[in-house]
Amino acid sequence: MDGDSCRGRVKYSHLARHSHLRAPVYDGLWITCVLAPALPTRPALPVAMPSSRAPSDDERLSSAETGLAGEGYGAQLRPEYGHYETACFDAAELKRNLGIDPGQHCWVEIASDKHQHLYDLTVKHVGKHCRISGVNGAGSFTPTIKAWDEDLDDDSARRLALPFLSNLYPGGSAGALPAPGKQAKVVTLSAGLGLSEVDFFSKSGEACVIKCLNARRGPVVGTNYKARMWETMVLFLEGRENRETLAHFIESILNNDNEPRPNQYKIFRYCIDIGHWKCAATKTSRTIDSVVLPASTKDKIIQDLDAFSNKEACDFYTSHGIPYKRSYLFYGVPGAGKTSLLTALAGKYHRNLCLLQPTDPRFTDHTLSEAVREAPPNSIMVLEDVDALFGRDREASNGKTPLTFSGLLNALDGIGNPDGQVFVLTTNHRDRLDPALIRNGRVDMHVEFSHATPEQMEMIFRQFYPAEAPEVVVQFRKATLAVLGDKKVNMAALQHFFIRMMRKSASEAIACVSSIVDDLNEKQVEAQGRSDNLYL
Prior knowledge:
This protein is of the alpha/beta class.
């Protein structure tokens, strides 16, 4: 090479004669130039068209796809030339082996690398609802092994999987039951590789068939989440004009996943690794009456949500240019019932719970905004321990997070957010929050959770001993207040007491109320010991 070549100005003619060249760009640094040979010129493929008329759009599409994919070109060039994709399938093979003419269909591709959550839902839906007969009926499946039936909520399923309740396992004969001490397993089948067909009705009620082609290609590669292969699901529907029906089919899959079943609600957590919300659990709804809170507290928030959750309220917000959302601040002592009320509200209003803790150092302003916008519909968005994000000086509590205070405010303000969202911010220390975060318009209602009141003491006693006379209830309340003196107790401590009294009568429980104070003292000593150890 000459001097110019060594400084990065290598002549093209010189490079063309060598497939690998190394030139020192800077002293001590070499760059390797790897050049692929020029692609051979591909002759135009003849297309037979009547000379008396111009080709239609469908004929042009079919001809183009045949030219691109029919002879080993286009959709994927020869391996030695690298990859250059213009279609998500091989049109010639599709028509020859599966009888699908792309020129007569519309289609949508759901790629696992771009829409992982939707891809997983689709293969699950297709495996469950595909035809069981016919040429393209059910044939290829992928098993998923779970410890319980997916139609059960997680709590009921885990109870049925306990060894001493194995005889209650649904749908199994005595011979199918697991051995004592082993949990029963349930296998669900998702769509495997190849073609499956699903019957579907369009919005107009017209019956149609969705042809679902599941494919996989390439080696296993490592990602931030796990080792994966490139996978794609292509949905075909006959008729170039039927793309809205394909969109409706995908909407039905998404809405079926997000919609809670009767007497159940779903808990979603935002997974920053894969950038979407993931269903973490399905829970049995609890009633509002089962939440032991002062009646005034429950009535206050229920009346507000009832007034918000209707068409008249939506029209009012819209006509006045106000974002149609509602925000609450749950604040107060730990163990006072904040989480219990949230779960009861999710069940009463048939909403999902979306739990968001943006303390991960990968959470940016944009990530938080996207998480709020992409939350499953009909959800209660919960930002837990919001005081752990920023102090009153608006400085991040976690110095490693790129999330800013203004980014948090923008995410809550509803600009571009879906209508009807309900936000709940929780904190044990309202005094640590910046006033701008909890001002009117950003937080609509503050709900305090305090230590157990005499009313709550009677309510929780009636829940565990519903058959006892009113005077026994009063006796428990007086005895508890007497042993507490000036001490305060939260509802979690009272519930813990009644769990310990599980096999005792009401009179025995009343005789043991002093153990409530003993437990409080013990916890206080343990906390003090941990505090002292910080200085050792």
